Amino acid sequence: MSIPKSHPRYVSLKTRDTIVDGVKKGITSTHGLIAHGRGEAFDYLIKEKTQKFALEAIEAAACLLLSAKEPLISVNGNVAALCPKEIVSLAKLIPAKIEVNIFHTRKNRRFFVSQKSEGFFRKSKKRGIAIAAYLAKNGAKEVLMPKKPLIKYIESNRRFCNPQGIAKADVVFVPLEDGDRCQALRKMGKKVITVDLNPMSRTSKAATITIVDNIKRALPILIKTIKRYKKLNKNKLKNKIKRYNNKKILKESLQYISKSLS
Amino acid sequence: MSIPKSHPRYVSLKTRDTIVDGVKKGITSTHGLIAHGRGEAFDYLIKEKTQKFALEAIEAAACLLLSAKEPLISVNGNVAALCPKEIVSLAKLIPAKIEVNIFHTRKNRRFFVSQKSEGFFRKSKKRGIAIAAYLAKNGAKEVLMPKKPLIKYIESNRRFCNPQGIAKADVVFVPLEDGDRCQALRKMGKKVITVDLNPMSRTSKAATITIVDNIKRALPILIKTIKRYKKLNKNKLKNKIKRYNNKKILKESLQYISKSLS
Predict the structure, then answer these.
(1) What mean pLDDT do residues B7-20 have?
(2) CATH number of the domain that A93 lies in?
(3) How many domains does one find in chain A?
(4) Per-residue pLDDT averaged across A236-252, rounded?
(5) For residue A157, what is the nearest residue in chain B, using CA coordinates?
(6) Cα–Cα distance between B79 and B96 in angstroms, integer?
């Protein structure tokens, strides 16, 4: 669909087309489209702008990623479809590893368990492979695939991850995450940074840092902020992280939405 | 995906599966999935329950449908996937005609213009036909198809409707409607009843009666209410309609959401 640039909601509608394209590319799942719709509704409630509470969270996220020993970026089908270039830039900048994270079916699980190579150059219809291939096309040098059921406290196939990736990471940046998995990563002692437009979601509440913003707007700002903070020493980064309070940020975002409704 | 009945959001998750099934059946569009997700977010904000403002709107809607001369039910891919049986029951009960309403592509438009019969028994991959066939399978005796560009004030292919259906109707029940089309129907002097979980949408604002509720919960209540009011004479129905104030209802729903956030 061609959308005139003058349309008041041009960016939102273009983004919608991008995510629908993701389905056609075999990257995004149909359930991912519904999740995108939920995000759209909450984005509408924060006026489709990066608000102060998101900027504060982005600053803290930049510091946490820069002070991590084993930072990792966990990418699902929606993230890959919406921001492939930004994810690759971020990974190179921090630097951090990238791992594919999907709610894979049983069939896929067997595939992941039995495969011998990372195999993301293979032509395959499997969604995980499609995501990795798409990131590679956008400049990623390495993309880890989920391999072993190493995420504890979780029953579903989401417990699969890579022993060299999420399993080892101390800080996981996992935008648009599922609630169960976010809680499980926290229980494993990892610090979790997420991007979630719903400040009431389990992911938002469980994460160490929640950026309540549209990922399309948040990632470029996160990249800029990391470039600015790269020179800071570890102590300065730690002090900035210490001052951050995720509960306060979530409360502020709820108050903002509540005010804008009445 | 099998969801345990004990899950706190069981109904919402089952509904999500139903709409995804709609895509597999060729009834629901990918953009329809995103729209469903937006609805889910707003449903969450009204606590996934039919609130007082929705019940009031349902009462008025029942009266308006019963007092209409040419009532019509306009059905899109999401409505058909979610509530086929309820739509058919409603049409028989009022009684009202059913018309398929989709944002059909140019290709489909030519199809609709040139087709000679209603043709919904033909095996076809076209979404409009699939919707009609699905309603027929669920008991509909007749389903009208969009045929001529008779909806004024609208540029897109949504202006197509059936001369014996929407074009003639005085009251249109059109749940989960697009803003442009709702406004256009109102400008043509028709009374419009909608179901929309977003009280701020253009559809919600333009409609004569807006039921701010999940269609899966609202339709059974609407059917019950119509059964109860069927015996009332026209004057009593008119008095009930007169007392209804859509602006007030929308304001109340916004206040409810705002309060529940803070």
Answers:
(1) 85
(2) 3.40.50.12640
(3) 1
(4) 97
(5) B1
(6) 16
The answer to whether position A5 is within a domain reads: no
| For residue A87, pLDDT beyond 70 | yes
How many CA atoms within 13 Å lie on the side-chain side of A46?
26
Give pLDDT, residue B149. 85
pLDDT of residue B117: 36
Contact B37 A41 (CB under 8 A): yes
- Is residue B24, in this structure, part of any structural domain at all? yes
Q: Is residue B28 part of a domain?
A: yes
Of B37, B41, B198, which is closest to A33 when you measure between CB atoms? Answer: B37
Question: Are the beta carbons of B198 and B38 closer than 8 angstroms?
Answer: yes
pLDDT at position B239: 96
* Owning domain of residue B136: 10-261
Residue B4 in domain: no
Interface probe for A, chosen from B13, B24, B33 (most Cβ of A below 10 Å), is B33
User: Is the model's pTM score more than 0.90?
Assistant: no
Among the partner-chain residues A30, A31, A41, the one whose CB lies closest to the CB of B198 is A41
- Rounded to two decimals, the ipTM of the complex is 0.85
Interface residue B23 vs chain A (CB under 8 A): yes
In angstroms, the CA A42 to CA A44 distance is 5
Q: Is the peptide bond before A95 cis (omega within 30 degrees of 0)?
A: yes
Task: Report the C-alpha gap between A201 and B146 in whole angstroms.
Answer: 41
- Which has more confidence, A117 or A90? A90
